Amino acid sequence: MKLLRALDRLLVRLETILLVIFLSLMVILAFAQVVLRNVWGGGFLWGDPLVRQMVMWSGFMGAAIAASQDRHISIDALAKFLKGRIKDLVHVITSLFAAVVCFYLAHAAWVFLLDEKQSGGELITGIPSWIGLAIIPFGFALITVHFVLNAIEHAADAISPPTAEEAH
Predict the structure, then answer these.
(1) Tens digit of each residue's pLDDT (9 = 90 or more) over 59-114
(2) How buried is residue 143: exposed, middle or buried, by Cβ count under 10 Å (0-12/13-18/19+)?
(3) What's the number of domains the chain is made of?
(4) If you write DSSP's letter for every residue of 43-82 in order, what string do you get?
(5) Domain that holds residue 154
(6) How large is the greatest C-alpha to C-alpha distance in the chain, in angstroms?
């Protein structure tokens, strides 16, 4: 269990670093574009498409971090009324369901990416468009991993011996 938690923490650290880099670059590039347009009447041709790509990459990194911290969008109306092991069991089921959905989304995104690679589209200045879109299957795969790790953690909580508080 410690190994899984360490893996999750490592993934979150890497995702956070990437998120900070993308957000910083987005702010700097967007600011530079505004200044260049207002002062010199033009900007970088590749600036706006690159910012759009970084928005997508930032969104997937943020979604992966949210999934790791159990803060991803979920319908938890039932879980709010449950306690203890039953709540953990419901969490395991919902996390596994979310993992399966994200797995299929990652697979569909992979097929899309291969089609995009075959079509030979261009993102900016000679960079193939599939490179920018690679975050879609990769992001859904990361989210899948986090949901599976959450399910394992809650399953371990559900089968662990009861605490003193639960015993009363």
Answers:
(1) 999 999 999 988 777 666 666 777 878 888 888 888 999 999 999 999 999 999 99
(2) buried
(3) 1
(4) --TTHHHHHHHHHHHHHHHHHHHHHHTT-S----TTGGG-
(5) 2-167
(6) 72
